[in-house]
Amino acid sequence: MIRSVRIRLLPNNKQRTKLFQFAGASRFAYNWALDKQMDNFREGRKLQSDYDLRKEFTVLRNAEEYSWLLGISNNVTKQAI
Q1: Which of 21, 37, 72, 75 is most deeply packed, by most CB within 10 A?
Q2: How many domains are there within the chain?
Q3: Are the C-beta atoms of 24 and 18 separated by less than 8 Å?
Q4: Residue 5: its pLDDT value, please?
């Protein structure tokens, strides 16, 4: 008989804050990439590769307006794209 094991994460306040920041950055990167690809599709252009999107996102995250992304691991946003 196989028993299921229930594991609970109990993050402290600092960890909880980081988890929400990672989730927000991931959602932002995903929606940004989706919007870029939808624009490409609507305008009849070729869809961009993951590599090209990630390169463009790196430029975006280094812009002053999006400097908040610098506090988030680039792996979080890379996986979202």
Answers
A1: 72
A2: 1
A3: no
A4: 83
In degrees rounded to 5, what are phi and psi of residue 21?
A: -65, -45
Q: Is residue 1 part of a domain?
A: no
Local structure of 66: helix, strand or coil: helix
Those residues whose C-beta lies under 8 Å from the C-beta of residue 36, and which sit 6 or more positions away, are 48, 53, 56
Output the pTM of the full model: 0.84
pLDDT in tens, 22-74: 999 999 999 999 999 999 999 999 999 999 999 999 999 999 999 999 999 99
Predicted local confidence at residue 73, as pLDDT: 93
CA distance 72 to 69: 5
The range of the structural domain enclosing residue 64 comes to 14-80
